[in-house]
Amino acid sequence: MSSRTVDLNADLGEGFGVWRLGDDDALLEIVTSANVACGFHAGDPSTMGRVCTRAAQAGVSVGAQVSYRDLAGFGRRFMDVDPAELTDDVLYQLGALDGIARVSGTRVSYLKPHGALYNAVVEHEAQARAVVEAVAAYDARLPVVGLPGSVLLRAAEAIGLRTIREGFADRGYTAAGTLVPRREPGALVQDAADVAERAVRMAVDGQVLAVDGTPVPAAVDSICVHGDTPGAVELARAVRTALEAAGLQPTAFTH
Q1: Is 43 helix (H, G, I), strand (E, B) or coil?
Q2: How far apart are CA 190 and CA 135, in angstroms?
Q3: At 127, phi and psi to the nearest 5?
Q4: Tens digit of each residue's pLDDT (9 = 90 or more) over 38-89
């Protein structure tokens, strides 16, 4: 039985003003890393501060979940942004969250793109370079989280940044190893037993089953359960329980 560690992350702070999405407090008792929205797809200064403060209290690492400037679309629409502008947008989000995190008793420990930007930088070289250039300019010690084999992780490695390979327990995969678009059948996996089994398979065996049943290589350092998935708290708890039962210790990769 394995005795290694694996990170468990969730997207948090995705409310805005009086509107809240997901149960941040409950998830912070389960996950080891929190991908905090930085205001471009969701989040606002007060929400960011609340999540960072509670993450610090729970000993959960804080990461900047950066996005296209797309509040109306929740960052899930591709935007053909000029690379230089995208670098500035990422720097803006990183700096904003890090400032609030430091006042809250923690700091930004890594970066992860959100939504359409995450999917775009799997293959979009110019935007991938724009994201990693922002990280390198701000703090070259920050790891970059992304899909295994993505252009983003290759671009980060090329300039000496640490990379974290991420798997999604609650998302469907194509046979090519990419995520099934959210509008297509099989995009979401919502059965707790299935989600937990997929997490263990990725962490232990380094593979995941695609929607057509094809085994896909998926060696990962971190596993994500989306905070906005229906039943997210129960799914995250099931994943953590299953990982521990498999001899894996949920531990933030930044520790």
Answers
A1: coil
A2: 33
A3: -70, -35
A4: 999 999 999 999 999 999 999 999 999 999 999 999 999 999 999 999 999 9
For 191, other C-beta atoms within 10 Å of its C-beta total 13
Q: E strand or H helix at 209, and its extent?
A: strand 207-209
Amino acid found at 214: T
Closest CA to 166 of 116, 218, 207, 211: 218
Rg (CA), the chain: 17
Scan for tokens 């995705």, then name that residue.
Answer: 14
**Do 199 and 246 form a contact (C-beta atoms < 8 A)?**
no
The pLDDT of residue 255 is 73
Residue in 119, 220, 216, 110 with CA at minimum distance from that of residue 173: 216
Two structure tokens written together for 70? 């797309």
CA-to-CA distance for 56 and 161, rounded, in angstroms? 25
Let me know: does 58 contact 12? Beta carbons within 8 Å: no
Say how far residue 180 (Cα) sits from the centre of its chain.
Answer: 16
Residue 215 three-state SS: strand
β-pair type (249-250, 5-12): parallel
Alpha carbon distance 88, 92 (integer Å): 6
> pLDDT for 82-113, tens place per residue?
999 999 999 999 999 999 999 999 999 999 99
Q: With the C-alpha atoms ordered 42, 48, 54, 58, is the resulting torsion angle positive or negative? A: positive
Name the DSSP letter for residue 15. -
Output the six-digit token pair for 86.
């995208």
Q: What is the pTM of this model?
A: 0.95
Phi/psi for 95 (5° steps) reads -65, -40
CA distance 73 to 9: 23
